[in-house]
Design brief:
Blueprint: H1 39-65
Length: 76
């Protein structure tokens, strides 16, 4: 780390600059990335939407494409 006062390099772990004898700044701990609190909620709604689309596709649209009605109607 370079001394902010005189610019001389000091090895890690030193608390005082060896040249100007001033206190070196304490190394900052790396900050943990903050997790987005709405990320889990957003993912849940995306999964719910995908599940609804799959349900819609399997129960209503595919039977129509295969040539039959989605719901069978009784013949009078």
């Amino acid at each position: 780390m370079d001394c902010p006062h005189c610019g001389v390099y000091n090895p890690e772990g030193r608390q005082v600059c060896w040249r100007c004898d001033r206190e070196l700044p304490k190394p900052q701990e790396p900050q943990k990335p903050r997790s987005d609190p709405t990320l889990a909620l957003r993912r849940m709604w995306i999964l719910v939407g995908i599940a609804l689309l799959i349900w819609l596709l399997l129960t209503w649209l595919l039977p129509l494409f295969w040539g039959g009605p989605a719901v069978s109607t009784p013949v009078p």
